[in-house]
Amino acid sequence: MRSSFYHYLMTERDPHKKDAITLFANNAYLDVGFPKQSEDYQKISHYLELNGDYLPEMSIFDEAWERYLEKEN
């Protein structure tokens, strides 16, 4: 069974690293509205476009999504 994108993203959390994906993961952890169970790119992308003020560029999400797909396959 495939894990959610959020579950994958939480593996990227780190209080010391400051790269874009780590910062995205740290901020998503604090976002109570994040679609935690979703595996759907469009749903998560739409949510972030409306609510992801902490994400400076959507390309960061795209890169994290690619890593997620690689890890899941």
Question: How does this model look, in words?
Answer:
The chain is an all-alpha fold and 73 residues long. It is built from four helices and no strands. It has helices at residues 5-10, 20-30, 41-51, 58-72. The longest helix has 15 residues, at 58-72. It is globular. The protein starts with a helix and ends with a helix. The model has no long low-confidence stretch (mean pLDDT 96).
SSE topology:
Elements: H1 5-10, H2 20-30, H3 41-51, H4 58-72
Provide a compact summary of the structure.
The chain has four helices and no strands. The chain has 73 residues and is an all-alpha fold.
| Rg over C-alpha atoms, rounded to the nearest angstrom | 11 Å
- One letter per element, helices H and strands E, the order comes to HHHH
Tell me the strand percentage band: under 5%
The N- and C-terminal alpha carbons lie at a distance of 11 Å
Q: Label the overall shape.
A: globular
Supply database-style keywords.
globular
